[in-house]
Amino acid sequence: MRLGELMIPGTHNSGAWTGVAPYLSNYVYNQDRNLYEQLVFGQRYFDVRVGISPEDNTFYKKSPKEIIVIDIHKFNVPANFQQAHHEKLLKVLEEKIGKYIIPRMYRGINMHGPKLNTLWKTGKSIIIAYADKETMEKNPPLWPPVRRFWGNKRTEKELLQYIIKVAGTTIPGNPMEVLMAEMTPNLVYILTNPLKSLGYLADLINKNITNWLCDNKLEKKVNIIASDFFLGNSLTELSMEVNDVKLSKMK
């Protein structure tokens, strides 16, 4: 099976689980578990804005065959992120997890990317997708940015319609694509619903997302699917079932 044929569970705004005062947290936190706990609970895709995590590499050492995708898709601080900042970030990545990074393999030969056996033979386990094209192309360890399908919806119905529309869509580039399965409040929503939260919105989606995928026969068409407060859904279990079925058909 190839990388782009797997169903991979992940988290949206993976690092947004701590760091602000409680009275500000309603519309800031997207998760309630740290990165190590997300890994242990089965998440394998991480939606990252530039920052440095204090977590160690225990999980990578204990689980060498678990392929992990770190999608660095925004460079927020400083606002004028320049090449010198990219170089500094790459140096940190090399120092922290360099020996675990799988070098870029996708060259357009197969739209679904390399086979799992090919990835395992590297003896490494982390894919770094990098949103800055110039920096990515100059650095062989970096992969192209993961193609993102983000609905920017504020109701369950709108998000469901969006998921049905885009699930299974393939676009040349990185063999990986992620479906962002969460609602996105805008300023008007936040101001008119100050006592609600991202957790409240996630609960509305999480209790239905697995059924949505299965009822519309989309579960086998999804590559990566990222959610808020991931423990509220069963996407990890669904991913395991879907991948087992796909693997059994290849034998």
Question: What topology does this entry show?
Answer:
Elements: E1 8-11, H1 35-40, E2 45-49, H2 58-62, E3 68-74, H3 83-97, H4 116-121, E4 126-130, H5 133-138, E5 142-143, E6 147-150, H6 156-166, E7 177-180, H7 187-192, H8 198-215, E8 224-227, H9 235-250
Parallel strand pairs: 1-2, 1-8, 2-3, 3-4, 4-5, 6-7, 7-8
Helix pairs in contact: 6-8
Plain-language structure description:
The protein has 251 residues and is α/β, with parallel strands linked by helices. Helices cover 35% and strands 14% of the residues. Strands 5-4-3-2-1-8-7-6 form an eight-stranded parallel β-sheet. The longest helix has 18 residues, at 198-215.
Order of helices and strands: EHEHEHHEHEEHEHHEH
Side by side, the strands of the main sheet go: 5-4-3-2-1-8-7-6
What is the arithmetic mean of pLDDT?
A: 89
Instruction: Classify the fold: give the CATH topology.
Output: TIM Barrel
Strand content: 5-15%
- Rg over CA atoms: 18 Å
- Which structural category fits the helices and strands? alpha/beta
Shape: globular
InterPro entries: PI-PLC_domain, PLC-like_Pdiesterase_TIM-brl
Key attributes of the depicted protein:
251 residues; alpha/beta; TIM Barrel; 8-stranded parallel beta sheet; 14% strand; PLC-like_Pdiesterase_TIM-brl; PI-PLC_domain
Provide a concise account of the structure shown:
This protein is α/β, with parallel strands linked by helices. It contains nine helices and eight strands. Helix 6 links the parallel strand 6 and strand 7.
